[in-house]
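Hi everyone, sorry if this is the wrong subforum. Our group has a chain we'd like a structural model of before ordering constructs, and none of us has done structure prediction before. Sequence below.
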Amino acid sequence: MRRLIFTTILSVCISYVSFADVKPNGMFTDNAVLQRGINVPVWGTASDDEKVTVSMNGQSVSTIAKNGKWQVYLQPMSEGGPFEMTIKGNNTITYKNILIGEVWLASGQSNMERQLGLRKGQQPIKNWVEEAQNANYPNIRMITIPRKSSSSPEQDVKANWVVCDTSSVVNFSAVAYFFARDLQSKINIPIGIIHSSVGGTPAEYWISNEAMMANDTTKQIMVDADQKKKAALNGLYNGMIAPLVPYGIKGVIWYQGESNRTESKMYQTLFPEMIRDWRARWKLGDFPFLFVQVAPFKDMPPEIRESQLISFQRTANTAMVVTTDCGDCKDIHPSNKQPVGNRLSLAALALAYGEKNEYMGPVFSSAKYAGKKVVLSFNHASKGFLKNTDEIKGFEIGAEDNKFVTAKARIKGKKVILSSEGLMLTPTFVRYGWGNCMEVNLFNNEGLPASPFRSKLLVN
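Answer:
Right subforum, don't worry. Here is the predicted structure as tokens:
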């Protein structure tokens, strides 16, 4: 009798597996945005040998499921919509109101995670009520990936694409929303944002295990965590990035670094390795990776901003948004998110869409000491500097004794000239904005702030 019952149950299970419904990855829902101009991957699960057909916008592509999985590619499509996508196997699923446009992945920690609406324990986003009342953008959509950590890479997500309107936008990432809004105003193409971020997380949580183990510096982080019997460091990569691959994207916007502020030297290796890892996973080349330099805050040391600057200088097709003018010394979550999103959109226009605009603030290039003056040169200042004040603040000159004094700065054409009568020894070092929460005001003529830096002088 027991054998009969067991055999019956087994037969039912086998029958169920053999005729399992086709199930697309959770990234595909009503209101989705698909990346234009590339072969669009669509994938999911089904029973072995089940024929799966995906139809959309005049295309129809079929494949046979193997090992319970299937994947097809739709031919590149131009922007447009709305369309319906039909996925047929043993069953049929139809997704409606799908657009073809530009898809960006938005990730990082709390300053990316922070929604436009109110959040307990944090100050309101600047002008959030007015911003929400005007946020009627049916061609902007966002999918927010639920928080999930995993010891191994996940294969699927449970989320939904949401159309931007005056009620839904309060739950959108504020930075990602402002980025999408300002970008769409320029390119007039549907924008999709995949939002996958978690507050309080260091960069090592967002890298695959394989990438961490492939580099001596990052490998040591894994070894230390194992010795301390911590949970898998890259649980968030496994739960919130891995299941998104290979969904078609144009690039990434990233706001993180606060949780690595005590490990700034290591971050110089860790962050570029994360960028390399994500690019390798998506197999879309060196797609634009646009990130935000952490804002001034009383407990935010300058070394982490320096590490982000070095990461930018060492990593191709990246841009760094400087936030020295929109931070809050008393709050690690500054409320002025509009400039952050706008500057990310400027970088996207330049790196992703070929617009010949200045998309970054001045970046230190060289410093020379000649005639008792220090002459500074900068990249991203081809049109010179904004002369909106009589006093340029934030520069210091130091000698070999490592003592720094405030430097008097003046703009001369495309150069910044420093002098200081308070320095007793020959100047050896120069720095700008070198503090946790600094008062600085150097901008290029496009109104974008200069990145903090420090450097040794070249003596003529």
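For your construct planning: The first strand starts at residue 23 and ends at 24. The chain has a mean pLDDT of 93.
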